[in-house]
Request: fold
Amino acid sequence: MPTPILDILWIVPALPLLGAAINGLFGKNWPNKIVNTVALSATGLSFVAALEAVREFFEQGQKLVHKEFFDWIVAGSFRAGFDLQMDQLTVIMVLVVTGVGFLIHIYSTGYMSHEGGYYRFFSYLNLFMFFMLILVLAANYVLLFVGWEGVGLASYLLIGFYFLKKSASDAGKKAFIVNRIGDFGFMLGMFLLFKTFGTLDFTQLFAKAEPWSHESWGVFGTFTVACLLLFMGACGKSAQLPLYVWLPDAMEGPTPVSALIHAATMVTAGVYVVARSHILFSHSETAMVVVAIVGCATAFFAATIGLVQTDIKKVLAYSTVSQLGYMFLGCGVGAFGAGIFHLMTHAFFKALLFLAAGSVIHAMGGEQDMLHMGGLSKKIKVTYWTMLIATLAIAGFPPLAGFFSKDAILGAAFQIPGGHPLYAIGLLTALLTSFYMFRLIFLTFHGKQRYDEHHVHVHESPWTMLGPLVVLAILSVIGGWLAAPSFWGGEDHFAAFLAPIFGGAHAEGEAALSEAAAHQLELVLAGVAVFAALIGLATAFWLYLRQPGKPAEIAKSLKPIYTTLYNKYCVDEAYGAAIVKPLLSLSTNVLWKIIDVEAIDGTVNGIAHGATATGDVTRRTQSGNTRSYAVWVVVGALTILIIVFWPAIRAWAGGAQ
Amino acid sequence: MVPTHYYLVLSAVLFGLGAVAFVFKRNIITIFMSIELMLNAVNLAFVAFSQAFGKVEGQVFVLFVIVVAAAEAAVGLGIIILIQRNRQSLNIEKVNLLKL
Reply:
């Protein structure tokens, strides 16, 4: 029998790293075909290895697998090893990352085929896969942080992929810098956890944290502070208020990157960390409330901005921010399973939406403004149908994936004490989601065509691009069925699968109700949610197909609101005025012109000037005239003599007097 | 028996003459000779002290000085010959290229 993959779990992340190294180091002059083969086989094999590892995980009875491969940092009692672990949560994350990642790799071979820097693109993409897998497989916070920073690096490189374009390289920097703010909190959180518990290994840490109760450290005790600091990191990575600003700009990157990194996987890392640390979070009600409120507010806030954007990718970007808010809402109300469930289904349909949008952009020859599209449904049929499925899924129509996951989150929000406002905002957001997604569909695919047919040759994409679309469409349809039976009063397979990790966290709210009543309530809530989605759909249909002139009229009559939304609440400008400008002027006027130029350069230059001036004086002694040297020797000898005999001379002079 | 300080005064006078000649003379050979003069003035002082204190170390030092002076004379004269060859002059003031 060959070695079980679980014993060499490192192979799963190592394969993409190998692919990245090969393409990055040698790929420059290779034809696209070889680069493809390397990149696709690296991720493909990694996917296969992950599948095999998961199979073995099930075979050995779903017990936690914890492997220590080598020591990385050992200092006193502190140990951070290259330790990987596999449990139910990891299974889901690894499969989503490798599976969706592999599909997007395939798609990219078609999408990027005409672009320069082909090898570079795939090298970065593989590098991203490596770090993301490290992130989800890590068995301690330190190694997780390696992956965390690594995906940030890959994200930066890929956002700035068209680095000759100023806006793209700026967007890359913005993403990096905004993430740094969050990472700062994350690191402080780690330090605090280490100081308190003396370990950063998940298993040991959670075992030590478990016995403590929330009250033992008070409302603003260690758990709350540590959780809020970790959540700060999660806010940065997962684009939550107030650190979401980098994600919409990140759309400067190539579309497959937006799909993989900025929709399906990397941005969900924050949700993953919160879910992974759920033992800490569930010890702190304050932190949970903050997570829920931030998630809920972000969901609503981003959805309102998404209502009026005209760039197809920007709409999807704000939609991503909004959906991430849902996931945090789920975690914040204690339904970690529902949050992770939404993470998974979202990975399917949002990756699909981005890839389909990429296909549309490809068909339109690079046009991204929806106002210059329209009537494309007849011309690019496969793209249209797959995108429609994804839209139905994200809007929450049964029996598609988004319906079940969103329903689970809203249901959990409704059932916790004091959760009704959260539920109401969540429901309103669902309505808005449905509206802006169908607005996107109607503007892009229906109505009159608003582009010049002589200039734009609309064509369907190659099958390397359409294949992943179809697979993801299928997943978007069936992805939610894992939880479907609960809808008919049966068992929620997804929640049951994750139960060993999240335990009874989900049951907290439900325990209050009898099973039949709970089921009835769930049906009612689901009905309300579908009704909200229908209203959104109908409004979009009426505004953008029946009365195409109406949106402009409404925009005019509600000009202040429209302008605010269109300018994204001027958050970027506010940050610019409140943080960037003062920092810039401080750096320019104080740090640069005073500290750097005057103090530091002044000191260094002053020393150099002093040396020159001293030299100018002393070099005059070196006249080159041999006799003057002779005089110096005599004078020196006399001086030494006088110094040596000075006491004798004084005694003699004294005696003479 | 000549008193010791007679030797010492003679030694000081010889050394002073040597030092003055060393500074003021222009001909390199003369300068060289004045150095020899100073060395021998010191030798005289050594020997005088050796005799006065009845110790032999002073005479040993003198032998060392004579050996070193011989070596120095060999090297110094070689340099002087080269200077004469290169510049057709023994004037010390013409030997001033080693400056900024």
Q: What stands out?
A: Confidence is low (pLDDT under 50) at residues 505-512 of chain A. The interface with chain B takes residues 619, 622-627, 630-631, 634 of chain A (CB under 8 Å). The first strand of chain A starts at residue 65 and ends at 75.
